[in-house]
Amino acid sequence: MSYYIAPSFLDKLAVHITKNFLNIPGIRVPLILGIHGRKGEGKSFQCELVFEKMGIEVTLISGGELESPDAGDPARLIRLRYRETAELIKVRGKMCVLMINDLDAGAGRFDEGTQYTVNTQLVNATLMNIADNPTDVQLPGSYDSNPLCRVPIIVTGNDFSTLYAPLIRDGRMDKFYWEPNRDDKVGIVGGIFAADGLSQREIEQLVDTFPHQSIDFFSALRSRIYDEQIREFIHKTGFENVSLRVVNSLEGPPAFKKPDFTLSHLIESGKFMVGEQKRVETSHLVDEYNRLNRGKGYQAPSPVAEIPVTKPVVNQSTHLTLETQEQVRQILSQGYKIGIEHVDERRFRTGSWQSCGSFNIDAHSDAISMLESCLAEYSGEYVRLVGVDPQAKRRVVETIIQRPNGK
Start and end of every Ribulose bisphosphate carboxylase small subunit domain (predicted)? Predict the structure, then answer.
């Protein structure tokens, strides 16, 4: 695939890495470049593309390696990998960098529930020491007087405010906030779907349909399109035979034809994924199950009594049953917010509801208007009214207000 490198990303990394290999008199160059931003925006992958384009070798450390049952191991690992990378520069005669992915996950403090261990302290202190003395990095218990080659360090993360403040000060770490604009997204998504025959206009329309989604959403969307063929393959092979057919099969790996990558199909699948995201955001069942998340002042909300759906009594001014109008008033009067969901008959059996509107409706007129719109748009589907407690972040009522064909 012809992957896209954002110009601003390429420029920032190229300048930082090159600057660290130059000897500019009177200039103090930060050794560490911290790339931070929202989850799923392709920070690590963009780095890989830049390294490949510039012919740079990379030594990787994961944030998960920055904790250990043995105190001092992660700090020693950083020093060891740094020295190995410095030796690579000397032997290969080319640029090499040390990259730490998800630094904030391994060395950051997110809240009072996050442990601040000896290893966390040592990792922060080690990185600060290396940034201050990049050519004199020693291993515990030994000393080498020969200066090392300077090795630029690239770190990625979501929120660097969780890190130790002296580590991220300007003299040690240069910061770069990665937030792809529309042109960047169109270019990156175009690379993801390069082999699928989508035109530039269709790529733009796909990005504009889901403007608030991160880059990994579109990559997951492309993967999801193959689900139909894989499901058909499983049913054809048989659930009990799939393992033998896929792993160590004498027939070779199964082949799949190119699926339907039309824009309409991609948008339909994307909307289903968005619905699943919203379901996760609004459910927050951990608050119901875990007493530690409730806090001292937590009080279980009194459930809204569900009014059974009876034969519709239509009010000509709103086209909603009187029962539905009354339930909307009851939900809003208790300080809850309104959400609306719909599902067709096939997906109703699996409970795969999709959002029909915002889950932040708190005005009666807005709720009535949105309900009317959804009932009209999805006249042949199930539609249900959802009440959400914004404080406890959980659902307090779910009532079906429309069934297809009067079921």
Answer: 315-404
